[in-house]
Design goal:
Blueprint (H helix, E strand, L loop, with lengths): L1 E5 L6 E7 L9 H12 L7 H4 L4 E5 L1 E2 L2 E2 L4 E6 L3 H4 L11 H5 L11 H8 L5 H7 L4 H17 L3 E9 L2 E2 L8 H8 L12 H13 L6 E8 L15 H10 L4 E6 L3 H4 L10 E4 L3 E4 L7 E2 L2 E2 L4 E7 L10 E3 L6 E3 L10 H23 L5 H16 L2
Helix pairs in contact: 1-7, 1-12, 5-6, 7-12, 10-12
Bound molecules: flavin mononucleotide and the ligand C=C(O[C@@H]1CC(C(=O)O)=C[C@@H](OP(=O)(O)O)[C@H]1O)C(=O)O.
The site of ligand EPS has 14 residues, from loops.
Length: 388
Amino acid sequence: MNYLTAGESHGPQLTGILEGIPAGMHIDVDEVNEMLAARQGGYGRGNRQKIEHDVVEIVGGVRHSKTLGSPIALVVKNRDHAHWSEIMDPISPETPENTLRQVNRPRPGHADLVGGMKYGHHDLRNVLERSSARETAMRVAIGAICKQLLNQLDIQIVGHVEQVGPIAANENSSLNVSEIEQAISENDLRIIDQSQIQPIHELIDQTKRDGNTLGGVVRVVATNVPAGLGSYIGWDTKLDAKMAAAVMGVNAIKGVEIGDGFDAAASLGSNVMDEIAWQKSEGFDRLSDHLGGFEGGMTNGMPVVIKAAMKPIPTLYKALQSVDIETKETMKANVERSDTTAIVPASIVVESVVAIELVKAITDTFDGSNLLRLRSQIQEYRNEFKNF
Ligand SMILES: Cc1cc2nc3c(=O)[nH]c(=O)nc-3n(C[C@H](O)[C@H](O)[C@H](O)COP(=O)(O)O)c2cc1C
Ligand SMILES: C=C(O[C@@H]1CC(C(=O)O)=C[C@@H](OP(=O)(O)O)[C@H]1O)C(=O)O
């Protein structure tokens, strides 16, 4: 399974091609759109989301709501393009008005400066249009289809917010996926601990008034993942490594933890290793899940638990120091309309990329040509492991 996305933040549309989804799978477009809407929401978002209303159009690979096994082509339109059509025109020559909208004061923390130097762009808009996290809308559309496939294979997955800036919204690690879904559906922060809603709202409001920004931590849990996805035989076959790369590939993610992650470094081995048990009816089991469902680069049948640290949003309304790339004068960085925090959307994006990597691992391990065969192969494989 593989995918590619294309499109600029203020261009006409985002385009995605998803290859390797089994034939015969029902696609629920409303569910894809619900996930796109969730990615647009959350406390702390900026004004762009008042313009956009993300809906997916499926323009290939699906007939009468069922996948054909051929590449699935997806489109999400950028409504804001209507206001930028001249500036972002793919064909017509530049107009003087476009020149006025050039970006030449790179924003610290963005791809602007190095991207301009690498690709030879003196209008840094050519960089920021693609480096913008607008692209994550398409990753979520693709992730939503992967999540539907996982659900059809009896695998559940959810992403939620665990921390906003310095405020932890106390993870309750004993909750299952549907309990987490229930708890986070009740607030606009996707947090489990409702007592932190007000302090976090106040923190975001104050930060916005100060012209500053916030990051945070998100957590993804996937349950009933078959054991043995990925492999210990080579560094590039380890699924935990691929997961970490996919999560790190989400804009503004600066750290990835699997299971207890960095906390495990300070613990004793007896508090970190997940002891092994066996029951005739269920086969092998673990007494805990400190290692987040991975041993030796393979899933071990316990819940997959991945956390990601997001840096604060780099565009500050109280702009930071920069240098004009033409005049070399010290100036304030460009200010593009911006979110105060995007931790809520990040929880949906990280959930999506974890779902994508799980589907990749599953279709690498089993024949993913059609859903019925895939389902029966996985069932047989689960039984084999139970009887080991
Ligand atoms: C969902 C989401 C929304 C974001 N919104 C903004 C934003 O409004 N303004 C901004 O400056 N950065 C925003 N970012 C972060 C930048 O896209 C990101 O920091 C930048 O592209 C540089 O990439 P890097 O942080 O991965 O190095 C957002 C990130 C995500 C995941
Ligand atoms: C458009 C989205 O997020 C954008 C991500 C983003 C960035 O620099 O990453 C900067 C902002 O772009 P704009 O200047 O167009 O408002 C965000 O709004 C989105 O998530 O749909």
